[in-house]
Amino acid sequence: MLKVENLNCNDAKNVIGIVDPTFSWKIKSDTNNVIQKTFHLQMAVDKDFDKIIWNYSEISKKSTHIPYKGAALVAATKYFVRVKVTTTQEVSDWSETIYFETPISDWQGTWITPKQTEVVTVNGKTYHRPFIAKKLFELKSDIKKARLYISALGVYEARLNQHKVGSDYLRPGFTDYDHHVQFQSYDVTDMLKASENDLSIQVGEGWYSGYLGWHGDRDVYGNCNAVIAQLVIWTLDNQKIVISTDQDWCLDYSNVVMSDIYDGEYYDEYLETPTNGKFVTFKRTKASLVPQEGPAVQQIKTIKPVAIFKDPAGNTVLDMGQNMVGWVQFQNINNIGKIELAYGEVLDQAGNFYNANLRSAAATDTFVIQPNNRKRYEPHFTYHGFRYVRLSGFSDAVTAAQFLGIAISSATAKTGIFETANKEINQLQSNIEWSQLDNFVDIPTDCPQRDERQGWTADAQIFAKTATFNRNVNRFFWKWLTDLTIDQKLQNGSVPVIIPDIINGLFGDGLSDTTAAWGDAATIIPWTLYQAYGDLAILNRQYDSMKTWVDYIRSQGSNEVLWNTGLQLADWVGLDSTEDSYYGATDGALAATAYYAYSTKILAKSAKLLRKMSDYNEYRDLYQRIKAAFQANYLPDGVHPITNTQTANILILEFELAQKENVAAIADNLVALLAKNNDHLNTGFLGTPYLCHVLTETGHGDLAYKLLFNDDFPSWLYQVKHGATTVWEHWDGIKVDGSFWSDDMNSFNHYAYGSIGAWLYAYVGGLSQLRPGFEKSMIAPLPNQKIGHCQCQLETSYGSLACTWQLEASELKMTVTIPANTTAVVVLPNVKDKAAVIEQVNQVTNQCADFKFQEKQQQTYTFMNGPEFEIFDEVDEKVAVIPEDAVGFEIGSGHYQFSYTSTMN
């Protein structure tokens, strides 16, 4: 049976606020080798499709990211969409109908702000007190539909008739407010009454005017907050009523005295709330308002504490059992007066509550409570990174049951499953996933707990590939790249080290503008998204930014093929650094030029895909010249880099900067450096993401596994062994003796080293793409006895791609699932009797009409083959070696099982 499922619009369904719709769907079938031949899309303004406005058919196997090509869409209008397909076997029925709705295009409302901002002082620091904009109105007719369009300079929470509007937090989100601010569109039809109604919008400082950045700055974008809203109501008697913000709205305050992203919230029930203030128009163009681009920040999980205890210092401490991001909600029982919840990630060497690594971030929620009150309390406009909470002012009878952890993150759909029979590896994967969730709070932050939480570009590009395995982050990064493009233009082509650029291009230590690997997020992230999701629109959208970045590097110094000027962060916090230094030992110009070559290569590939052939020829030539200059300056003997570090060799191998005949020798050089370090890494931010990849791809997969299984310092499992539930910023964030690396820069929730996750999926689980979006995949796991069993699954743009393997004694069982409308190259590893396995494979694959088994005669398989990737001929192809004891074949969609005797004992 053929069925079309998961029709969506811009990676979601039934969403309000879409302006440029693209459509994707997945095909489900009981038969194998299903390939789409045609599709038929219909769009209408009614759910019965009596009023069709777009009737589009195409002879194509493409089923992802199909752009709308009809007449101009009308603002504030709901559109219904459905699709049917014809495959090589049969014709489907119409899919389930979805809808999307366009936002308003004309704002009758104006930006308003209190005539006089109320400034409060808490613990010696000043804040703008959150205010409330209120509107009372009466409706005399029954409501047909109603929409609330809303934004703020700051963060807001809207309530209609005392009920929270939507399930989002920290709206409108963090953008470069000087240039654009998102607005949200909510369906509030069921919240209105045909009588008296009350709309209130509380606005806090958020990222707009609160404390922001590690320098202690505030008012980065403005020194007061503002709100704009427009409630549009259509009644059953055909009236259209518009209620929008103006100077006549009522100004009110709640008991929230202050609420700050870093410092937390202060709530006082004894405080009188002034109500005699006035609003004035805030001079801000409405042209900067844009519909929401990325997923909303929402509650993703609730977590019950695992313990409450007294630490040696006498503090009452709550243990959530998981380093998380959000806050703690509590029910008041027998508490009167001032109570505090202070947040921290770890306990110190003596077992005491510890939060010195948060630096100036107070991360404390304070509640002053009246008697006889059993309400539940939680903050409004803040969030914390924490596992432990120090409780002050609570009665001695306080119990863990009174508390509940509220975990928040940008609402990205889970796409990956990676589970093994090894508990430590599973915990590592859990740590990676949690660090991603915790740091994907509207932007990809470096850490979620201290006075920083900024969109560091290197961290984002390093982790992007792993992120695409764990969650659907397409629109998440799409939104963030909007700010990257804006801020890049403001810096004349340079890409700032953090986005949004709250430091105006300046970093410190004599470094201005940018640095390699950080700025290369402009090219690497769009390319990574294209590979993961197959949407060429991301390259088209970001192409000018990518090109501008490469041209910026090209203009540095006197030699256009080397980047040997400026201070480079290079292999940040590499363990081969000098004592008390953050800078790894790898030469900065070597690392910078390596990334320059890689970005130029990505740009040339993108130019060809976009049919910009003049650019393609220019940047292909530039890439070749950069590569030659790199070899002459940083790899003079062809094998040993000028700084012979692990990271230098890793970058040369990963970015394919050596002559082919020298690759094996460079890999051996890396192996020797690891052996010299007792088979342990000493890499930082640049070397770590690619270490296990290059070892595996050069035939040293056993050593990659050894690095994975190391559990002493430094290693991934060292953190697991020391109780980590998220990934640390430093390999020795907690030292062997229990002391800390430092108080100054020591996050226990950084995802950069979690980039090993991409290797776990691709090599342990065996899933990687041969064509963008996994239209063609490679399923080639590397079984290991310490893993024993692995279930690896990825929800691709086409459907579920999966590989499960189990090693029992000498028998290897392997099950693969290939989604409809795709193909895969399957490699069965460690085959003892190839003839028997080939016969077994023939029995399976002969069921497929178009995919007869043919063992690969060559012992290599070229990744990303196909005409669109034959770009640099001999220098562009990545090659995966199929060992002599493996059987490889290409096959169509379906579910297949194999079982055979393995060479592994």
From TrEMBL:
It holds the Pfam family Bac_rhamnosid_C. Residues 766-839 form the Alpha-L-rhamnosidase C-terminal domain. It is an enzyme of class 3 (hydrolase). GO terms for molecular function: hydrolase activity. It catalyses: Hydrolysis of terminal non-reducing alpha-L-rhamnose residues in alpha-L-rhamnosides. SUPFAM superfamilies: Fibronectin type III, Six-hairpin glycosidases. The keyword Hydrolase applies. Keywords: Hydrolase. The keyword Ligase does not apply. Residues 414-764 form the Alpha-L-rhamnosidase six-hairpin glycosidase domain. Residues 312-408 form the Alpha-L-rhamnosidase concanavalin-like domain. Residues 142-274 form the Bacterial alpha-L-rhamnosidase N-terminal domain. Its EC number is 3.2.1.40. This is alpha-L-rhamnosidase.
